[in-house]
Amino acid sequence: MMNKKNKEIKSKFLFGKRNYTIMLIGLAFIGLGFILMAGGGSDDPEIFNPEMYNFRRIRLAPTLVLIGLGIQIYAIMTKPKKQE
Description:
This protein has 84 residues and is mainly α. The protein has one domain. Helix content is 63%, strand content 0%. It has 3 helices and no strands. Helix 2 (17-37) runs antiparallel to helix 3. It is elongated and about 70 Å long.
């Protein structure tokens, strides 16, 4: 009887292990994108810092965030494999 309860509790996860792994990869992409977006400001508001508008902050970082969001959607929509 105790073994049956353990199996019921174990199968209550909404997603499978593969889905959670894909979600972690997506979160890593999103986190990396936000890290790459950080910085580039100036300590003095009177001085313009053109570093704020370089390729990394304008193109690469937002692309990584969007790719990460796409990976998250894929992880949610992917059907979990049945474990027996």
